[in-house]
Protein: Amidase
Organism: Octadecabacter antarcticus 307
Amino acid sequence: MSVIELAKATLERIAADEDRIRAFVHIDHDTVYAEAKRLQNTGTKGPLSGDVIAIKDLFDVAGMPTRCGSAIYGEHQAQRDSAAVASIRAAGGLIVGKSVTTEFAYMTPGPTRNPHNFDRTPGGSSSGSAASVAAHFVTMATGTQTAGSIIRPAAFCGVVGFKPSFASISRSGLSVFGETLDTIGGFSRDVATVSRFVGVMADRPGLITPERIRVPKLALWRTPDADQADDAALAELERVANAAARAGAVVTEFVGGSGWSALLQAHTTIMAHEGARSLGYEFTAHPNLLSTSLHDFLSKGAKIDGETYLKARQISIQESAKLLVEMSSFDAILTLSAVGEAPCSTISTGNPHFNKVWTLVGGPAFHLPTGTGPTGMPLGVQVCCAPQEDERAAAVALWLEAAIGYC
Amino acid sequence: MSVIELAKATLERIAADEDRIRAFVHIDHDTVYAEAKRLQNTGTKGPLSGDVIAIKDLFDVAGMPTRCGSAIYGEHQAQRDSAAVASIRAAGGLIVGKSVTTEFAYMTPGPTRNPHNFDRTPGGSSSGSAASVAAHFVTMATGTQTAGSIIRPAAFCGVVGFKPSFASISRSGLSVFGETLDTIGGFSRDVATVSRFVGVMADRPGLITPERIRVPKLALWRTPDADQADDAALAELERVANAAARAGAVVTEFVGGSGWSALLQAHTTIMAHEGARSLGYEFTAHPNLLSTSLHDFLSKGAKIDGETYLKARQISIQESAKLLVEMSSFDAILTLSAVGEAPCSTISTGNPHFNKVWTLVGGPAFHLPTGTGPTGMPLGVQVCCAPQEDERAAAVALWLEAAIGYC
């Protein structure tokens, strides 16, 4: 298929379902065809040739508006590509449009629906990205995670999500919420594809062609807050752990993680304080254009003093170090991605409780869809490693995908 | 003096000298008066009340163009304040305009001259910021440092420069060159003022009202590359160390730092690779609007593969950890800020050799002007601490300033 045929097929596929799924905030057919023509004429080939890609509406794309899920910015067009988008273009990927984000990547949802059930949330903040992959609109989509904004929507939409190590991908041209938290990653429908995608954005060749692992040593960790997860989510985690063991993995219950609660608390403080500082302009100049929920969160954040914030940063560094030592005898942690199936809601994007610690620790995290829950919605597991062990995380996720499949 | 009188006095002062110093790329008198009126009418008071501030042209300021020292962006106006600018406004600071940066914070200079000698460079990349403080145009100016872009211009212009710990100040709304390097900081004419300024942007109360230190334990480190410094710079460092000892400091020769060269090399690799990724759009879409020097650097960076980059990141983490252990028995390192006086050049901004390691290590660094060199240009010293020891660095710099003065 030529790039122009690919563009045509993609736009037709989107046109057929977009009025119900509402994954995009901006698609311009002429721009897509022009870009397809450019790729075809220049003969640009690369690791993303043949891929069609949605860009979360927090990333600048030259000539498209960056609205950040907010009414504040109107039709204002970006004058440049963000670094991640530039690397996608250079690798031959065809950019289709801007996918819906919640308001400034916080909790107030956009119009996107879960492709598996239109009454359910697709999760957030990378709502349109996860949904556009689940709906087969695109092969890949960018996301960002401050608390659980990649892994949770991946879980709710039943696609693979990959948040690499903190600072793997340049945030130049990204609207940032949490200075020490926000991590760029991506979505796709299988581990190899999402690894290739993140590998391009991060220029990590070991992700573009990931190695295979033979016998992964997995630590099964329900975390001290397992009681906050639905029975179905816990049962799925158990089932995957058992299947992995049967397939040859060494699966051990994780003993440790005494810093879990301290890390969760630190995350809350850091995110509120950093959010209030990053969105200081919007909070001061356009309070009436912010949702009540975001306005309340930023007010709370603005009241957290600098000492408290720095203390939380310190606790985060200390407790992360302890956890990483405890994790170091395993290839990866196998844990919960979300509290359960996507909730039946269009006013909430669900609970990121099981994602915050991993964002704060800064290591790679995969969501792997593995099955369905009691109401037929997707369920899965999260695979987490220490910072910079992205290649190993990808290898473990590949192994699990092959060993367990989706059922 | 009312805020409006302050605005008037500032604009008059700038008008008198700006045609020779060329510190600004954008000043609009109406905007400055409008902002002064707003501050006066709302009665906004805060730790920056009475301060007039220049913003390096890499930071978005709502309603002003962000040109990044490049012809690429033209008159395109920023739609929002960057996080640092929002915090300055909220603290009652009066923003005067955008100060000249070198092209995208790399080496190609803008038109700014050194206020002490118009034939000399003010240093870079924060050229206009350092010059506007030295010329008494403003009391404070923002800067960013990727290699030596705050400390070097502070040294050349004879003002105090303060680069706080990495990630102290939100980069939201900043044009980023090096994702893991770029650090926001500031300039002023004394330590207490620059600490207050950085303290506001970082929300670090311990910097806004810094504590005093009684008997600092200083490590005098000429580094293994002392032979790259001019005799005058080394003599000044020696003189300051002796004066500090006479004033009661414990000054010890630093033994250690075997990772110096490895850190320098890692910095070069990381900066080139990250720069090529951050400026991927400009490199691809506007190669003819980039200077030869930046284009060459980005070409070089684009050829550094992902493995090499990750290896350099690893070395940086390992060698930084070793250096920090060696530093831990001292309150601060006393070292060179620059190779010597500002060079007699308008085509180069000088050599950041003695700044790169401290940017990579990520701790706070102060430049303290302490005297003049053989041609009458400013000289001084650099004070460096481990990451997050910003309050201690400020206390040591305050002590040195009081004990030694400027002579």
